[in-house]
Amino acid sequence: MSRLSTTTAVGALPLRPVDPLTDAVLLHGWLTHPKSAFWMMQDARLVDVERAYMELAADEHQQAHLGLHDGVPAFLTERYDPAHRELVGLYEPEPGDVGMHFLVAPTDRPVHGFTRAVITTVMTELFADPATRRVVVEPDVTNTAVHALNAAVGFVPEREIQKPEKKALLSFCTREQFAKAVSA
């Protein structure tokens, strides 16, 4: 991902690469928060988060970015190559498939429409790469809130899959499905 800034109804949402050491305290707070239970890092120690994001940063098949709102970190997004990470052996990847995760920072002052603006920003950034033909996600089957968000930006569920850590809903969104969903 580049340092794209998408302007949304909630303002500009620029992205910057995660710095594993500098951002670890912030990410640790987000990932261990009860609202982030689907990230399965509730018991992670600070060193675990540092290590996880250092490994991710060193991996040519993954990238992590922080999204800013009014200059303040407000969300996390991860991009991965599903032919090499997360979904290896669980489906047949096609050329141009890109995997994605996102997490909106827990807050006591939610902004109406913010999460939808975040996923729209993340998808816009992924499709800014002309090589991206389809975005792949694999949220927990019980995460109905994210299923609704995914549907709102054009994702179509394909099937349930069993990952080592969870039962997931494998879903896909093409460039055309995304464009149609966000223009509606």
UniProtKB/TrEMBL annotation:
All copies of domain Acyltransferase MbtK/IucB-like conserved, residue ranges: 16-63
Pathway membership, UniProt: Siderophore biosynthesis; mycobactin biosynthesis
Pfam families hit by this protein: Acetyltransf_8 (PF13523)
Domain of life where this protein originates: Bacteria
Role according to the record: Acyltransferase required for the direct transfer of medium- to long-chain fatty acyl moieties from a carrier protein (MbtL) on to the epsilon-amino group of lysine residue in the mycobactin core.
Entry protein name: Lysine N-acyltransferase MbtK
